[in-house]
Design brief:
alpha+beta, Glutaredoxin, 4-stranded mixed sheet, 4 strands, 51% helix, 13% strand, rod-shaped
């Protein structure tokens, strides 16, 4: 079959003897690209695993705080102390973060709590992952006590009867402790 005179012959990029060499280079390039993609995807999985492990370790409550309602109740009954339940959004709620920073983390509050309170943190984080049983417990308690905002601090006597509800109070640990002292001790 003859071609029309205006159709040009396809130009060859390389002479015939060099074509197999170009194919080998192209194949090596694809192979190296596949190895690089595999290495990147594996490193992401490893970092995700270490991130998950770090998050799991940091999920526990603040020092001195319990996360189990049953344990907190038993301890309050055994030591005849008030049970302070802090419903918080520790990683997203601005008032909760302020309450923790200005009151709960201060030595004055910790000293008072050691003598008078059993502390229970019921967290509702958005970015941290919670163990499923802890999240379910916290949700049940929020529904049970009709929690509609954060932070909400409920205080119970050692028999489990509610004695008061608090929230963020400006004035640091002194103001918060003063509110606690006004509550009936049961």
């Amino acid at each position: 079959m003859r071609r029309a005179s205006f159709v040009l012959e396809p130009r060859r990029l390389a002479e015939k003897p060099k074509l197999p060499e170009a194919r080998r280079v192209k194949n090596w390039g694809l192979f190296l690209l596949a190895i690089a993609l595999l290495a990147v995807s594996c490193s992401k999985k490893e970092s995700a695993v270490t991130t998950t492990q770090t998050q799991t370790q940091s999920l526990s409550a603040k020092p001195g705080w319990l996360t189990s309602y049953e344990e907190a109740q038993k301890e309050a009954q055994a030591k005849h102390k008030l049970l302070l339940m802090d419903f918080t959004g520790s990683d997203w709620c601005g008032w909760c973060i302020m309450l923790d920073k200005e009151v709960f983390s201060k030595p004055e509050f910790r000293d008072y709590a050691d003598k008078n309170l059993v502390l229970l943190e019921l967290d509702f984080p958005r970015m941290k992952k919670m163990p499923p049983e802890t999240a379910a417990q916290n949700e049940r308690l929020a529904v049970r006590y009709q929690i509609s905002g954060f932070p909400t601090v409920l205080v119970f006597d050692s028999a489990g009867k509610p004695v008061g509800a608090l929230g963020y109070t400006p004035g640091g640990p002194q103001a918060f402790i003063a509110q606690l002292e006004r509550l009936p001790k049961g």
